[in-house]
Amino acid sequence: MFSRQAIIKVSIAAAIVFSSLGISPRSAGQDLQKKLEATYAITKPTDDKTDIVTAGAVLILQKDRIIMYATSNQVLPQNTYKAGKLSEGAFGVHDSVQKFGSFIGHPPPQQMQTQSRHFVTGEKFWVTGIAVQSDGVVFTLFTDAISDVRYQSTLKFVYPKGATPSTDDVLKTVAEVFKVQQDDSAKSDDKGNQQPAADAAPAADAAPAADAAPAAEAAPPAPPATVAIGQSTDEVVAILGQPEKILNLGAKQIYVYKDLKVTFVKGKVTDAQ
After folding, report:
1. Residue 193: how many CB atoms within 10 A of its CB?
2. In terms of C-beta distances under 8 Å and separation of at least 24 residues, what long-range contacts does 50-54 make, across chains too?
């Protein structure tokens, strides 16, 4: 047990350190709290945890894996993130024991049964609370309904032993695990600048521009192909194209087209039907 005198000395030393930086432990924690909540907007669920009252930021998990319990369970599981690794701790062990017991045909006692789910990289959820503590930051997480079940848990970002990281360092650490989904109502152009979801529609009664060019008039239809008595074979081929068949009857030739027969005598058109 520490003596009262030793505790006072430690408190004074901590106060001296923070005062030399121009801040107090309380103000440092408040600053971190504000920045975290500004980045990861809090979601407010209903009291019975069946729905969302006010939607905040949607978080996308960047690492494997987090254990969550159904909101119907009384226990809120705690995961930890330390030195770049996620851990389910005792709750993961309990989940493994529970599944192992069921596997060998001897399920654990009913009071131990929990409805759990493991979340992996890319899955999404809400944050319903952020608590800045002396040894870390705790996020309370809450999901949409998955097969009619909502899940919840906490994730604690544990500070290195004996150290209190700066606000920027904490934000960087949290960003290793959580990415905030961008608002679907905004789009980004090729340069990454935010653009409105849709261009503003012009007023219904807006007059057309005075110098707007009139619509181009439709071009007149081309005249129909015409075959006349006395035309040569070359002229007919230039008009109708090559025939499907040619009937060569000496001085008389018949060019057969799909819907037409053209008769030539001595190389000149004498009939078409």
Report:
1. 8
2. 50/150, 52/126
What distance, in Å, lies between the first and last C-alpha atoms of the chain?
120
DSSP helix, strand, coil percent of the chain (3-state; round to 5): 25, 30, 45
The answer to whether residues 82 and 163 touch, using CB atoms and an 8 Å cutoff, is no
Helices (H), the chain: 4-20, 25-39, 89-103, 167-175, 233-240
- Judging by DSSP bridges, how do beta strands 85-87 and 186-188 pair with one another? unpaired
DSSP type of residue 232: B
pLDDT tens digits for range 88-123: 977 655 555 555 544 445 454 444 457 999 999 999
Distance, in Å, from the CA atom of 67 to the CA atom of 117, rounded to the nearest integer, reads: 6
And the tokens for 132?
A: 């800045």
212-265 pLDDT, tens digit each: 555 556 667 777 778 888 899 889 888 888 999 888 888 888 999 888 899 989
Using CA of residue 191, residue 194, residue 198, residue 204, what is the dihedral sign? Answer: negative
Q: Token pair for residue 235?
A: 């002229």
User: What is the full DSSP assignment across 55-107?
Assistant: --PEEEE-SS-EEEEETTSS---EEEEETTEEE-HHHHHHHHHHHHHHHTT-P
In the numeric block, which tokens belong to residue 1?
A: 């047990």
In order of 51, 118, 209, the CA distances from 163 in angstroms are 39, 31, 68
What pLDDT, on the 0 to 100 scale, is given for residue 87? 93
Higher-pLDDT residue of 238 and 210 is 238
Interacting residues of 96 by C-beta distance below 8 A, sequence separation 6+: none
Q: In a 10 Å sphere around its CB, with 0-12 CB exposed, 13-18 middle and 19+ buried, how is residue 10 labelled?
A: exposed
